[in-house]
Design brief:
Number of helices: 11
Largest sheet: 5 strands, antiparallel
GO molecular function: DNA-binding transcription factor activity; sequence-specific DNA binding
Pfam families: HTH_18
Number of strands: 9
Shape: globular
Protein name: Helix-turn-helix domain-containing protein
CATH topology of the largest domain: Jelly Rolls
Domain HTH araC/xylS-type: 183-282
Distance between the termini: 36 Å
Strand content: 15-25%
Radius of gyration: 20 Å
Order of helices and strands: EHEEEEEEEHEHHHHHHHHH
Helix content: 40-55%
Keywords: DNA-binding, Transcription, Transcription regulation
CATH class of the largest domain: Mainly Beta
Strand order of the largest sheet: 1-8-3-6-9
């Protein structure tokens, strides 16, 4: 079941839907509101940045991603987002909406699980023109707070369909269900992360052999299933350390399902190259 992640207060541009669009000339928050939200935070909503012209750098989960002309960056709820020090390019659209809005759409969009581990998507010129047209329609609809939400949802559905198609374009293979199995793997890991599920249990849940699961995960992520789960656990640890959500290594380890804090510390250093204390110090 999806968790509802509400927008910050007064964030939405529609009276009935939690959604907001921003362009160079529209939708910017006041300095006071932006200051309260902060420039580094754990996202409560889905975020999209589509650059029409120019370039910018955007940090997601402590990794910096450069976004250029006809490229789109998306970030997901619970990821760490840091707004860039420079502008978003000379022409762009930014869009945000939360789970409440997403739950009202007529279909699901697998790209939002980011199965290919790529949060930047490049669009061919024809697709970029279509994407811009949909953004423009949404901009017009959100210029008035009392717009019928069904109109907004219809065009949001079209926008996400374009993005979903472009996301999978390079990896599409007819009659190949590996991507569905990998999405199922990622979803199972997310829902059971701190339980430390075994590879055997996951394979049984997905009705595949352990060998098949290994090859599927390796194909899409470049990692073994065990490495994937380990990296996801350490990413969650980094997120919590970033926001100082735990006061001790022991408490953080237990919250993430580790029975042995010393083992967690060794694993953290192996994955990040830093001790927990060293990582925390670098954030100061």
């Amino acid at each position: 079941m999806r968790n509802i992640n509400l927008f910050p207060e007064t964030f939405s541009q529609n009276k009935q839907l939690p959604i907001r669009i921003v362009t160079p000339d529209f939708g910017h928050l006041s300095m006071e509101t932006a200051g309260k939200l902060g420039f580094k935070r754990r996202l409560q909503y889905y975020f999209f940045l589509f650059v029409l012209d120019g370039r910018c750098q955007h940090a997601v989960d402590l990794d910096t991603i450069e976004v250029g002309k006809h490229e789109l960056l998306f970030a997901l709820p619970h990821q760490i987002q840091q707004y860039p020090a420079t502008t978003h390019g000379s022409d762009y659209y930014k869009l945000g909406f939360d789970e409440e809005c997403f739950s009202r759409l007529p279909r699901q969009f697998p790209f939002l699980l980011n199965p290919l581990n790529q949060q930047k998507i490049s669009f061919l010129p024809a697709a970029a023109i279509r994407l811009k047209a949909i953004f423009e329609i949404l901009l017009g609809l959100l210029s008035t707070a009392d717009t019928d939400p069904e109109l907004i949802l219809a065009h949001l559905n079209s926008l996400l369909t374009e993005i979903n198609t472009a996301y999978f374009a390079a990896d599409r293979k007819p009659a190949d269900n590996r991507i569905e199995k990998f999405i199922g793997f990622k979803l199972f890991v997310e829902n059971n992360l701190t339980d430390h599920p075994t590879i055997r249990n996951i394979a049984e849940e997905l009705a595949v052999s352990k060998d098949s699961l290994y090859h599927i995960v390796k194909h899409f992520s470049g990692l073994s299933p065990k490495e994937f789960i380990t990296n996801r656990l350490i990413l969650e640890a980094r997120r919590r350390l970033y926001y100082n959500e735990r006061t001790s290594v022991k408490e953080l380890a237990f919250d993430l399902g580790f029975n042995d804090p010393d083992y967690f510390s060794r694993l953290f250093k192996k994955v990040t190259g830093k001790t927990v204390a060293g990582f925390f110090q670098d954030l100061s």
